Amino acid sequence: MEHVVIIGNGIAGVTAARHIRKNSDKRITIISSESKYFFSRTALMYVYMRHMRFEDIQPYENDFWQKNRIDLIEDYVDEVNFEHKTLNLLQTPPIQYDQLILATGSQPNKFGWKGKITKFHVSRRCDCSCNGWFNVDQLFWKQFPSFWNQ
């Protein structure tokens, strides 16, 4: 059976997996070091504000992956050997693939526009357990109240 491996479980990787499953019986594996299950990154702010629960921003139930025969691996891809079609992971044995899809996301670009935030960069990471949320913004703005004036 042909094996499709997708690196990245954001919207691009998950959409690719869904379309492949809809149109074929190929073996599908999604690899991500970020989180086990896909969630709406754009809705994450509502979880931070406590307007929604984390499970509310997961478009699919956790059993969706098993029902659709999509394997999930929580690991980091350390090396891609294109010649041998092998992925070396940090904690998991190497994986062979027939087709590889890179859906690893993007990085922000501030373009050097006037008024952009230059002194500080605040980033948030979700441990996806949502048991120990803390409000990064409150901590940040208390320490740097003049930041709004930039």
Automatic annotation (TrEMBL):
Pfam family, one: Pyr_redox_2
Keyword set includes Transferase: no
Entry cofactors: FAD
Single GO molecular function: oxidoreductase activity
Matching InterPro entries: FAD-bd_OxRdtase, FAD/NAD-bd_sf, FAD/NAD-binding_dom
Keywords attached to this entry: FAD, Flavoprotein
Keyword Flavoprotein (UniProt): yes
FAD/NAD(P)-binding domain mapped to chain residues: 3-125
Family: Belongs to the FAD-dependent oxidoreductase family.
PANTHER family noted in UniProt: NITRITE REDUCTASE [NAD(P)H] (PTHR43429:SF3), PYRIDINE NUCLEOTIDE-DISULFIDE OXIDOREDUCTASE DOMAIN-CONTAINING (PTHR43429)
Name of protein: FAD/NAD(P)-binding domain-containing protein
Source organism of the structure: Brumimicrobium salinarum
